[in-house]
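Q: Given only this backbone (350 positions), what sequence would you predict?
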């Protein structure tokens, strides 16, 4: 373990420990961090001394706020080669975690968005805390919910995944555990006990978490499940807009107002991504779809403009193009989902 590394990996008491260690950037992932995690996981996969894996973060500023968006945008402004290399590495890490033969625990304490979701959702045990804030906010910067969003989101109850993906809604632990995004809720005392017991029984994190979980309280989202399933079940964004407007309730109109601030192109891409993802047979198929999208979308006007408005200039007034849903044609979306040339498609680690 190198103390000043951006990701710390070591083996302690039968547990392979991965600690994100880039606190000033809210542990946002870069390619080197993904490579470090991948190398550790591959080394531990056949190592009998490692019985489970624990992923957490240093400091108190959040689990992982996403990926290195500034790098991705800078690369997308050119030939996108660096962005595509990052996606190849990150998505292979996501798939490695998804298929990993040993139990994985992720302690999702604080902010978890984008890339942080990608390295925690494949875990067998996903522990939320009072500080957890979950979101997939990509439609607000002209992107789409990648890192496995096309697989995980449509498999949430009803159409809650569609609502989350399109609106970028932020959820606290009561909602994430209620929806199954996270498997357990623990307070500080429970987390301390979990880590202590795991060091004595590293092979059974699920059983330990089951014994120590706390009551997460009432889930605010429960009151809106019926409306979400009724209003977000459509296969076009236009129909969702029309349903929200026709419903006319305060909640529905609030969702419509949120959607009207998002990239029309991103919303159409995202809805198709989730509908296709729901039909795919394997996680690898989903990652191949998202890799096709990623390399193309980062070069689009809306992603470049979204990053400028939200992350660089912070004026929060992106000028989307096309500016409305009608301008985002099926042909445009079809092109973004089209297969890549031979030899350029995503593939899992050999």
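A: Predicted residues:
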């Amino acid at each position: 373990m190198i103390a000043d590394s951006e990701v710390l990996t070591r083996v302690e008491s039968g547990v392979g420990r991965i600690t994100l260690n880039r606190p000033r950037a809210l542990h946002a992932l870069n390619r080197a961090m993904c490579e470090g995690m991948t190398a550790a996981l591959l080394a531990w996969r056949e190592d009998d001394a490692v019985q489970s894996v624990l992923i957490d973060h240093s400091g108190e500023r959040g689990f992982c706020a996403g990926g290195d968006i500034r790098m991705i945008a800078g690369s997308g402004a050119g030939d996108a080669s660096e962005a595509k290399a990052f996606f190849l590495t990150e998505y292979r890490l996501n798939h490695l975690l998804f298929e990993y033969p040993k139990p994985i625990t992720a302690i999702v304490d604080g902010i978890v968005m984008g890339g942080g979701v990608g390295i925690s959702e494949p875990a067998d045990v996903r522990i939320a805390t009072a500080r957890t804030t979950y979101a997939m906010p990509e439609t607000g910067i002209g992107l789409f919910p990648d890192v496995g969003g096309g697989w995980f989101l449509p498999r949430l109850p009803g159409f809650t995944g569609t609502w989350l993906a399109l609106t970028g809604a932020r959820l606290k632990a009561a909602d994430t555990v209620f929806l199954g995004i996270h498997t357990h809720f623990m307070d500080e005392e429970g987390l301390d006990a979990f880590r202590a017991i795991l060091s004595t029984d590293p092979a059974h994190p699920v059983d330990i978490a089951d014994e120590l979980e706390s009551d997460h309280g009432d889930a605010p989202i429960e009151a809106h499940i019926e409306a979400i399933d009724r209003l977000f079940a459509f296969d076009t964004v236009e129909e969702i807009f029309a349903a929200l407007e026709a419903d006319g309730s305060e909640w529905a109109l609030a969702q419509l107002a949120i959607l009207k601030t998002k990239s029309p192109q991103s919303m159409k891409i995202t809805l198709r991504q989730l509908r296709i993802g729901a039909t795919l047979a394997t996680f690898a198929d989903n990652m191949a779809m998202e890799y096709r999208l990623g390399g193309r979308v980062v070069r689009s006007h809306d992603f470049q403009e979204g990053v400028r408005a939200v992350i660089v200039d912070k004026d929060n007034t992106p000028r989307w193009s096309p500016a409305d849903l009608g301008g985002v044609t099926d042909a445009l979306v079809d092109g973004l989902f089209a297969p890549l040339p031979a030899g350029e498609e995503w593939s899992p680690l050999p």
